[in-house]
């Protein structure tokens, strides 16, 4: 792979968008390589977290517009057949995904970041729903993520005005988890990936499932789902280890083991 780099660390994979000369703008080839990287993550039982970032001075400038100039309108719509599966795969991974936004995150690039579980951004980074500038609408989940993260009023303004949001404002508004000093971004992001990779992996995956379902569930169905997922979590070796560690007043040593099959 060339447009996406994968570095395997103990417990987690670091995936880097790698078209720095174009601010890591998305292409069909990058989508295919990114998808391949996510498939490798899903197939690796030793991988218990993912860290996503961009090479160079930007995270992702969105769609590479040079690839769609003079293209029929229908082809522009079909691009999402390549990008939407990436969003679905990120959300469906049963392990935590950390995103380190190291510069501009624009258009689909912004929404790629927002699809991750925990987003850190360098203080110099910006997020912009740039679609309105070229007469398009937010895609790659933008119209779904934004209202849920920042509320309807801000989502509408950000989508229609296409104004950039600084990392500090993004953190203040709840769009991302936190903004950090530029020079500390990758160290903090990697430390977070390591921390997550040492947690109760199955339990974290079940947390993701519960929170995802809560976006559309009513209270009664969510309570039922919590009951069912809690029972599943209670069957894991990590739950047993967590209880022992609590009683023995020590740090738990989680292994990420799955519950026994019936």
Structural class: alpha/beta
Q: Class of the largest domain, according to the CATH hierarchy?
A: Alpha Beta
- Shape from CA axes? globular
Helicity, as a percent range: 40-55%
Architecture of the largest domain, according to CATH? Alpha-Beta Complex
Side by side, the strands of the main sheet go: 1-2-3-5-7-10
Report how far the terminal alpha carbons are from each other: 39 Å
The helix/strand series, from N terminus to C terminus, equals EEHEEHEEHEEHHEHEHHHH
* SS summary, helix count: 10
Q: Kindly state the mean pLDDT as a whole number? A: 96
CATH homology superfamily name of the largest domain:
2-enoyl-CoA Hydratase, Chain A, domain 1
Q: How can the largest sheet be summarized?
A: 6 strands, mixed
Q: What is the number of E strands?
A: 10
Number of domains: 2
The CATH topology of the largest domain: 2-enoyl-CoA Hydratase, Chain A, domain 1
Q: Give me the Rg, rounded.
A: 19 Å
Low-confidence stretches: none
What percent strand?
15-25%
């Amino acid at each position: 792979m060339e447009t996406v780099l994968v570095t395997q660390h103990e417990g987690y994979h670091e995936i880097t968008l790698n078209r720095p000369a174009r601010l890591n703008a998305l292409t069909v080839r990058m989508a295919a390589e990114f998808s391949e990287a996510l498939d490798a993550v899903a197939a690796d039982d030793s991988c218990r977290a993912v860290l996503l970032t961009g090479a160079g001075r930007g995270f992702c400038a969105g769609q590479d517009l040079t690839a769609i100039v003079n293209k029929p309108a229908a082809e522009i719509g079909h691009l999402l057949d390549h990008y939407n599966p990436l969003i679905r795969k990120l959300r469906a991974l049963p392990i935590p995904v950390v995103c380190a936004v190291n510069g501009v995150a624009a258009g689909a690039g912004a929404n790629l970041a927002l699809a991750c579980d925990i987003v850190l951004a360098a203080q110099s980074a910006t997020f912009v729903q740039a679609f309105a500038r070229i007469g398009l609408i937010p895609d790659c989940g933008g119209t779904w993520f934004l209202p849920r993260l920042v509320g309807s009023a801000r989502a509408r303004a950000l989508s229609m005005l296409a104004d950039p949001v600084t990392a500090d404002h993004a953190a203040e508004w709840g769009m991302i988890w936190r903004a950090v000093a530029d020079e500390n971004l990758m160290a903090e992001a990697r430390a977070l990936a390591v921390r997550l990779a040492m947690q109760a992996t199955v339990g974290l995956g079940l947390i993701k499932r519960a929170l995802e379902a809560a976006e559309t569930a009513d209270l009664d169905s969510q309570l039922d789902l919590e009951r069912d997922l809690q029972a599943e979590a209670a069957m894991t070796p990590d739950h047993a280890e967590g209880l022992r560690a609590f009683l023995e007043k020590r740090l738990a040593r989680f292994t990420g083991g799955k519950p026994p099959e019936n």
